[in-house]
Amino acid sequence: MNKRILLPLLLLPLVFVISGCPSIDSDLVLEIPSMIVDEGETLHYDLAAFVSGYDVSLLVFEKVSGVGVITGSEFIYEPSYEDAGEKETVVKATSISGKSAESSFVITVNDVNRPPVIAKADGPDELTEDVSITFSWTGEDPDGDAIEFECRKDNEEWINKGSGSSHTWSGYEEAQHMFEVRAFDTKGAYSNLISWIFTYQPSNRPPILQIPEQKVVEGETLLIELADYASDPDGDDIVFEILEGVGVIEGSIYRLTPDYDVLRQDFITSSSTECIGLDVKIRASDGKGGQSDCTFIVWVYDNNRPPVLNIPNQVVDAGKILTIDLLQYTEDPDVLDDFTYLVLSGEGYVNGSHYRLMTKDSDSGSRKVKIQVNDSKGATDTSEFSVQINASNLPPVVTKISGPSGKVFHKSSTFVWEAVDDDGYIVDYSFRKDSGPWTSNGLNSSIEWSGYSVGNHWLEVRARDNNGAYSNTITWSFEYSLAVEYGTFKVANSWGIGNWENVPDGFLYITYEAMKKNRVYCFVTVPKDNYSPRAIALFEINHDVRDDCQIYVGIGDPAKPRVEKRFDDTNHRGGEHPFPNSKMVLDITELLPFLGEDVYLRIFDSSKTEVTGSVKYFAIEVYSNYDTGSLSARHVSSDTPVKTINGTDVFARVENIAVSAADVFNTAGLSFSEGIPNDFLEEMKAELGVCEEGRDYNEIVMGFGTGLRPPTEKEWISIGRTWSLLEGTADGAILPSSVDNSASIHFPPIGDQGAEGSCVAFSQGYYTATFYEARDNGWNLTGASWSGSSPTSSYLDSIMSPDFIYHLINNGVDKGAAYIDAQSVIGNIGVATWKKMPYSVSDSTSWPTEAAWREAPKYRNGNASKNLVIRVEKDSDIETLKSCLASGWLVSISIDANKYTSLSQNDVWNSINYTVISTNHANTIVGYDDSIPGY
Question: DSSP label at 644?
Fold first, then answer.
């Protein structure tokens, strides 16, 4: 019931209660509210519910006007689907006493959208053989709205057909299928769903034909049994025919015999593979309308037919040259083949396609000659013929003894020959240069030619006998060139980019020949192998003269220690400067194990000065993981402070320490034995020199510092004991033609030492140590560049500090340093990063902070103190250096910085522009290239 009707009905009892039961004489009131009903629905209510003030049982209701019908007190209205809108109705109520009342009210009829209705018109609902089916249908909308149709196949996506009432479906598989259709009007109402369910089962299924690629050689026959590649699902007989391409079909056999010239046709696809692909299209038919086409490729390969060589017998006069154009006597079915010829037996020679026999005047009789022809595909034939030599007068015969040929690099050449005359004697030799006039040389059988220009030259010589007969002419052909050396080492300098070089990249190149000519010394540090510190000694010393103190850490009784390690194990320890006001660190991992022993710090304060100091702190720290700072134990000495005494040892001890053993340093790569032979050591000492105390080895060249000083006498002794010769590569090792370690992501940007004499620290620390550590730790330095006076700041914790090394080994003055001291620091102490100790050209004396000291053991390479040295003198030495570089090692090299001005335009030193008497600068070899020329 409509809610508007329900409310008055609910209120009616309340009216009765309030007013009491109405009487016959009361006023009659009829008030009917507005009503709402949907099209197609029934509006039904009791009119008595809208009467007030009167006994409804005494009333009669009638419709005065409008819609609906009244039965008793019931009002009923059933609007049709065309009645939407407002309908006004008037109802009258009359009592038995004659009283009456009317009420006019509005009925709103809501429009109701009815969905479309569709029905199947045509289409199968059963088994079908048709390969294409058209489905049709009808549809209408009860409200006259426009409608559209949608269809779908086998529950796939719906397809909008618009107002179309049919759809054709083809290409379905042999199976059961369902086709569905529905309609919708413009108001979104969907119709009923109609569907067709049918099963497709063809009466005749086509045959299947699948032929793979085929191969055949020219001149041979390809046979294909087509029945092997065809089948018919219905078992029907199959007939084959060629639709396109080459070949013929006989029954079920396909046959193709390609001609020998098939590869010579315009459609050749590849001369390198010597084959072409021919497309063939074949149809298989079952005789019932079913058919299947297949296109496949027949690859036709070249079949080389051998050439035919048939040379007739020849006749020549003695002293003459017999020349035969061999092409005139050669036939080949494959007309495009090229030929080469070879004398298998007999006299004469072949030049290109011409056979030549040079006879002497004394020759006569018959000669047998056998020549072989080879085509470009390996097929051969031979021909044997005779040469009849008719006797004649014998001229002299001249033979070359010596002289240049090919490419020469010297400006003067000597030519020597000899001659014989079987029937007389020689009266004159003559020569000519580069086809110039003949010049008599008398009876001299040699000539020296000098001053020729760069390029090709030839010298011809002939003899004349007493009868006036000239001999054969002998010719020397040669090309004079300026020397070109191939193969260079790539070298990194530490003078930044530009200014000193022609190509602004920070690198130069030195040829293999220049290396050998100058007997260049090279120094190699082997990369470390998985080293991690376990124990360090930590100490602080208050003393104004660093050079006065010798510092040791030992195990056991100082009077008779089990083992002892020196901290300042370099010749130039620190100069006349005070120790830093911070703790210093010495890695003592190699002294492990500690077997419940005492560990002591020994300070010997020499009598060089009267200055004394004190040991303020001494401790031993043991780590389970030094890289992460995992401290296992710290043992602090209670002996400190301890004052030093001139000329005497003082000690600070830590008692009773027990620590297990640690891994030792390992080396990898080339094998070597420790120690340098004395004769080699003396030669190296004589060539590199001995350090002169007080001399400034930081020679300023082009505004840049150098700083390579020779070892002291004491250091030469240490070198002979601890260094080793770098000896050879493995026999038969095949090296790449080029290696460039500077192209690695682990190589730092080109550095600039400025005017400071820190070249050794840059070579050993900045380049070599950084490269090794970056590679070991997986640091990518690709984004680093040198800006101003340092590398990119975000990379400073991945680049080793040259000042950490240089300040420990320069004796407190900026006068350079030696390789052995730098290697001793890296091998015994380690090296800190640039971040912990920045490089400064204005500071050459300050020592590291405690943070830098603590970081150094992480990047310690124990192999550095066992440096390898090689003097490059021969090709095998070049190969040894190349092997090191190919193994990922870097090489320090001693050079003369004054020679940078003689670099070629491509920054190359060769054996001509680089001649060294002494060296003053350290550079770093980073790679090599066998193909780079030395100019």
Answer: -
Q: 929 is written with which tokens? A: 């290239």
Q: Determine the residue type at 259.
A: D
Would you call the peptide bond into 593 cis, given omega within 30 degrees of 0 as the criterion?
Answer: yes
CB 98 within 8 A of CB 24: no
Q: How far is CA 856 from the centre of its chain?
A: 34
Closest to 890 in 3D by CA, of 916, 915, 861: 861
Provide the percentage of residues in the chain whose pLDDT is more than 70: 93
Question: Please, are residues 928 and 487 in contact by the beta-carbon 8 Å criterion?
Answer: yes
Q: How many CA atoms lie within 13 A of 140 on its CB side?
A: 3
DSSP 8-state symbol, 865: G
Rounded to a whole number of angstroms, the CA Rg of the chain reads 55
CA distance 66 to 126: 56
Please provide the DSSP assignment of 738-769 as one string.
Answer: EEEGGGSTTSPPPPB-TTSS-HHHIIIIIIII
For 406, residues 6+ apart whose C-beta sits below 8 A from its C-beta are 478, 479
Domains and CATH numbers, the chain: 3-110 (2.60.40.10), 117-200 (2.60.40.10), 208-301 (2.60.40.10), 308-390 (2.60.40.10), 397-480 (2.60.40.10), 521-527+668-892 (3.90.70), 535-659 (2.60.60)
pLDDT in tens, 397-428: 999 999 999 888 778 899 999 999 988 899 99
Q: Are strands 406-408 and 474-480 parallel, antiparallel or unpaired?
A: parallel
Regarding pTM above 0.70, the answer is no
Q: For residues 212 and 78, give the distance between their C-alpha atoms in angstroms, rounded to a whole number.
A: 78
Dist. CA 149–CA 183, nearest whole Å: 4
SS3 annotation, 39-100: CCCCEEEEHHHHEECCCHHHEEEEEEECCCEEECCEEEECCCCCCCEEEEEEEEEEECCCCE
| Mean pLDDT, rounded, of the chain | 90
Is the alpha carbon torsion for 497, 501, 504, 509 positive or negative? negative
Nearest C-alpha neighbor of 489 from the set 52, 881, 40: 881
| Of 372, 328, 317, 380, the residue nearest 350 (C-alpha) | 372
Provide the token pair at 388.
């009849």
Helix, strand, coil fractions of the chain, as percent rounded to 5: 15, 40, 45
| Distance separating alpha carbons of residues 394 and 422, to the nearest angstrom | 7
pLDDT at 541 over 70: yes
> Is 570 in a helix, a strand, or coil?
coil
- DSSP per position, 396-443: PEEEEEE---EEE--SEEEEEEEEE-TTS-EEEEEEEETT---EEEET
| DSSP designation for 306 | P
Q: Answer whether 427's CB lies under 8 Å from 458's CB.
A: no
Identify the CA nearest to 527 among candidates 884, 928, 925: 884
Measuring CA to CA, which residue among 137, 108, 110, 118 is closest to residue 189?
118
Of 282, 202, 286, 293, nearest in space to 236 by CA: 286
| pLDDT tens-digit map of 849-885 | 999 999 999 999 988 888 899 999 999 999 999 999 9
Contact status, residue 639 vs residue 651, Cβ threshold 8 Å: yes
| 210 contacts 296 by C-beta, under 8 angstroms | no
pLDDT for 731 equals 57
- Taking the C-alpha atoms of residue 502 and residue 908, their distance in angstroms, rounded to an integer, is 10
Residue-wise pLDDT for 1-54, tens only, equals 444 433 333 344 433 333 444 444 568 899 999 999 999 899 999 998 999 878
Cα gap 756→749, rounded to integer Å? 19
Whether the Cβ atoms of residue 588 and residue 536 lie closer than 8 Å to each other: yes
pLDDT value, residue 234 = 84
Question: How far is the C-alpha of 102 from the C-alpha of 87, rounded, in Å?
Answer: 17
Verify cis geometry, omega within 30 degrees of 0, for the bond prior to 527: no
Rounded Cα distance, 708 and 720, in Å: 19
